[in-house]
Every structure is written in C-alpha cells, then in structure tokens.
Design goal:
Mean pLDDT: 85
Strand content: 15-25%
CATH class: Alpha Beta
Number of domains: 1
Shape: globular
Number of strands: 4
Length: about 80
C-alpha cells in the first residue's frame, strides 16, 4: 500500500494532525520529511495510506496548514 504524505509546517501541527486523524479512524504516523526545504518549515509529514482527500479535509477543518502533499506517485509535490 502506498504511503501518502501531508507536509505540515511544524512538529506541533504534525502531532495534532496525527491525533485528529487517528480519532477519525485513520492509521496515521509522523515522519521527518526526507528533503526539507525552506518552504517546508521544519520538515514533518503525516503519513496515511488511505483516503488522502478526507485526511486533508479533516486537517484543513481544524486549521492545520498543509504546505505540501506527496500522493505517493513517485514524483512531484503539490500544496
């Protein structure tokens, strides 16, 4: 199963986001972003393996700023 990443601006948002997603029934994990750049803040991502759209919606509803998304397709990030 492919891992999809929702990149956030801080470890605080990563922890809060992971906890929100777990409460909603997701298997969610935190990972240090492999290639952090200036735009990606501290370089943390929330990993999910299913329903990326719903996970993104939950985070946005709780004002967790997503700075990038890796859909697990091998190349390219969107934000």
């Amino acid at each position: 199963m492919k891992q999809q990443r929702l990149m956030v601006s801080s470890i605080t948002y990563a922890i809060k986001g992971r906890d929100l997603l777990r409460e909603a029934g997701f298997k969610a994990y935190i990972e240090r972003t492999h290639t952090p750049g200036a735009r990606q803040g501290c370089g943390y991502s929330i990993l999910v393996s299913q329903n990326l759209q719903r996970a993104e919606q939950i985070l946005r509803e709780h004002q967790i700023k997503i700075i990038g998304i890796d859909r697990g397709e091998g190349n390219g990030l969107s934000g």
